[in-house]
Write a structure and sequence with these properties.
289 residues; alpha+beta; Urate Oxidase; 10 strands; binds uric acid; Uricase; urate oxidase activity; Uricase_CS; EC 1.7.3.3
Length: 289
């Protein structure tokens, strides 16, 4: 039998990092989950257990904490780039790094007290390869719902079809979006603008399918934001079924719903700028969506 070591990477997953900035009496809080992953000439440890090229995952974790203190965390994209470049430039055997950061939000109660924000998470995935880099940012669990302006009909019917057609239904989803940046970007400003476009397009677009809404949301981002080369959206259809109240002699005029948590439809798609800069490595180690 013949075989050899295939692609491999290693790092510290889910380093929980909380920073408090006390430079004024109004403290600011950042809550991040950082994952590092390194690639390079790492065959020896796999084949013989020779660790002379292995930057320990414990060292990677410590570097995350040290960089948070020394230089601070401002934009998560810049923090990720700083970490990625550090590993690639400081260690000859390391040729590539991927740094993933999730930012968890907190709402301010007072100068130095906070309450748990929504489940929504801001994300970035930075890939450094030699002197190249790619930044893929996004969000997860952006929950949106509209109570009208959504229809679904015209689909094929076979002997297994029971779904009634509707011209007025609740449309609800928890958006996961990832977009690839190109050029120079003001990350926080761009994130806020893209998030706002996603939300406002969801609300404004009269929907004949969640697929149509997804495409409208992605298109709105590409039309308004030249720094976005492509966007991928994953949107569960969080079904709200009209409850049959007739056994109780009651009419239900689209007012009482059963919010099913599973199964759910899962609608996924991307919108890609025709003249986008080459994606290169940007997506290659991300899941398809
Ligand atoms: O917007 C929708 N798209 C579908 O593909 C689908 N399928 C389904 O059962 N309901 C819906 N809704």
């Amino acid at each position: 039998m013949s075989y050899s070591l295939g692609p491999n990477q290693y790092g510290k997953a889910e380093v929980r990092l909380v920073t408090v900035s006390r430079s004024s009496s109004v403290h600011s809080l950042r809550d991040l989950t950082v994952s590092t992953s390194l690639r390079g000439s790492l065959a020896a440890t796999h084949l013989t257990g020779d660790n002379s090229d292995v930057v320990a995952t414990d060292t990677q974790k410590n570097t995350v904490y040290a960089f948070a203190k020394d230089g601070g965390v401002d934009e998560i994209e810049d923090f990720a780039l700083r970490l990625g470049r550090h590993f690639v430039t400081s260690f000859e055997q390391i040729s590539g790094a991927r740094i993933l950061i999730d930012e968890h939000s907190w709402d301010r109660i007072s100068d130095h007290a906070f309450s748990g924000g929504s489940r929504e998470v801001r994300t970035t995935a930075v890939t450094v390869s030699g002197s190249d880099h790619w930044v893929v940012s996004g969000l997860r669990d952006l929950v949106v719902l509209k109570t009208t302006g959504s229809e679904f009909h015209g689909y094929p019917k076979d002997k297994y079809t029971t779904l009634p057609e509707t011209s007025d239904r609740i449309l609800a989803t928890a958006v996961t979006a990832r977009w690839r940046y190109q050029g120079t970007v003001s990350y926080t400003e761009s994130f806020a603008a893209i998030r706002s476009l996603l939300v406002s397009t969801f609300a404004a677009k009269h929907s004949l399918s969640l697929q149509q809404t997804l495409y409208a949301m992605g298109s709105a981002v590409l039309e308004a934001r030249p720094e976005v080369a492509e966007i991928r959206l994953s949107m569960p259809n969080k079904h709200h079924f009209v409850v049959d109240l007739s056994p109780f002699g009651l009419e239900n005029n689209n007012e009482v719903f059963y919010a099913a948590d599973r199964p759910y439809g899962l609608i996924e798609g991307s919108v890609v700028r025709d003249d986008a800069e080459d994606a290169g490595l940007a997506w290659y180690s991300l899941p398809e969506f």
